[in-house]
């Protein structure tokens, strides 16, 4: 199949384009949000093809995967076809709802012509989707391999745009953790963060995925300080690396981290103490990391993810 999709979520799209289809990615001269094209920091196969946005009308398309509300009109304008009518369409919701939770109405609620795909069961539970048909396809990631060594007794944190996303991703909690555990913060635009209150926070910005995985695997613990967001792919990738993980017991994290695979708590004090314990005990950290990797491979393997998407695309294209 030839599938139109915008490059919105790099890590998620990296997994999707490993499939057996041709993925058409609009590109514009400025490579802005509606024309980013292929990834620059991930390695994508040749089946992920850049198409100038103005030429999409001439392309054969079998389906479109929407990820933002305005992409429905964008598709109609650029292709001349209406998603859900003369072009089979699904809409992937990457995020947990915001606003009046749990009463938040989804932008595509009561749309029987478009399939809504949630990436977690928690998101499905919290969004009000009305009569729109829903499929849940949990995340899958490329397995980077069991790389964890934990030779650097510091905690790794991955947050993209920590200033903009603020309390949602626990940016305000970083100084609290850094009072007792040294943190290495990775992600996009991390240099915008003023780390003066937490002097043991080191920042690493915009590393290519391969380099970031190597760097993460050297750290003793992976800390996931997120309060409210969908399940972070960086957490799943850390588990694949064999890292022991520590996360707040909120949203989908309680499903992703089974007993014995990491530390979960809604208490920031208990979570910080758990990280301190793992930093001081490499043997315990190694065992939790081994269990975390096994859990991630079992639930978030790439083969299952791609098979789920193959089934859904075949179903909507009938």
Structure summary:
The chain is an alpha/beta fold.
Characteristics:
318 residues; alpha/beta; Rossmann fold; seven-stranded parallel sheet; six-stranded parallel sheet; 19% strand
What does this structure look like?
The protein has 318 residues and is of the alpha/beta class. It folds into two domains: 2-140 and 302-316, Glycogen Phosphorylase B (Rossmann fold, 3-Layer(aba) Sandwich); 152-299, Glycogen Phosphorylase B (Rossmann fold, 3-Layer(aba) Sandwich). Helices cover 31% and strands 19% of the residues. It is built from eleven helices and 13 strands. The protein has helices at 10-16, 71-79, 121-126, 162-165, 174-178, 209-218, 233-241, 253-256, 268-280, 282-299, 302-316; strands at 2-5, 22-27, 48-52, 63-66, 89-93, 115-118, 134-136, 152-158, 183-187, 201-205, 219-224, 245-248, 262-265. The strands form two sheets. Strands 3-2-1-4-5-6-7 form a seven-stranded parallel beta sheet, sandwiched between helices. α7 (233-241) packs across α10. It is globular, with a radius of gyration of 20 Å. The termini are close together.
Strand order of the largest sheet: 3-2-1-4-5-6-7
Which percent range fits the helix content? 25-40%
In round numbers, the mean pLDDT is 95
Radius of gyration: 20 Å
Assign the CATH architecture of the largest domain. 3-Layer(aba) Sandwich
Report how far apart the termini are.
12 Å
The shape, in one word, is globular
Work out the helix count: 11
Number of domains: 2
CATH topology type of the largest domain: Rossmann fold
Specify the CATH homologous superfamily of the largest domain. Glycogen Phosphorylase B
Largest sheet: 7 strands, parallel
Q: How large is the share of residues in beta strands?
A: 15-25%
The CATH class of the largest domain is identified as Alpha Beta
